[in-house]
Design goal:
The structure holds two protein chains of two kinds. Chain A is built from two helices and no strands. By secondary structure, chain A is mostly helical. The relative contact order of chain A is 0.18. The chains are: A mainly alpha, B alpha+beta. Chains A and B meet through helix 1 and helix 2 of A and strand 1 and helix 4 of B.
Amino acid sequence: MEYLLILFLLFHLSSYLICLLAIRSTFKYLSKHQVRPKLRFLPFGFLRVRHIGLLYLICMSLLTFTSISVGIYFLM
Amino acid sequence: MSFWQQFLGFNPNQVRQFPGQQPGEETHVMTSGHWILLTPLLLHTLLTAAVLIYLNGFSAIFLELSFQMRFLVNTVILALLYHYMFMRLFNHFLHVLIITNFRIIDVRASIFFKREREVIPFTNIQDFRMYQNGILPRIFKYGDLILLGSSTDIRYNFSYIPHVNRVYYTMGEIHQKVAPFRQQTSTESARASESADNPRS
């Protein structure tokens, strides 16, 4: 079980890193093209890429930090 | 510049609207695909959410597992779902069609592994067509744009363009403006081919 928990912590850490890299890569590319695409889908018409990026960051941060803290609690 | 601006690559001194923009080039249309392309993503997300709810609420085998194991499985599935959902959305926004007064640029990129760019000058476009067939394209105002090159075998197809009518009319105006240049290039190429056929004359 301990090995599984360590693997679980590593998975969440790497997944958070991938999330940060994806946001960075996307925003760098889009800022070069000065694209401000909207998600033209009611009722999400106000959503732009920056909002989606922020949502991604918030969701992944919440999930990763909860999982890691609970995983460490299980390990102890 | 703040840390976040630097991290996300914002450049306040940027003059060009996209890399490779030529002097005097104006952007008329810059669009990504229509949101209808994201419907499979929505369905997959709903399906995964339904599976998670079923596992945690009704599946006897899953509920027999220890709390630790259930927590691990749930968080891993949720993390994978978030990655799938947001990366598909980002990839959708990275596919951009740019129409300027000189050319059409099709930028196909993905987050990490793909960088493709195709440029079609307006002088090379002989004709273009717009298709909006069916109930959904008419209701949600999207369609296909087909460009025909100067020779018959060259054909470019752009699908799921939002507000395809507007894009078509904008392209028509630009096409009309570059018509004299297109005629000039075609007569020049005809002369060149004639001189190549009769080198002694």
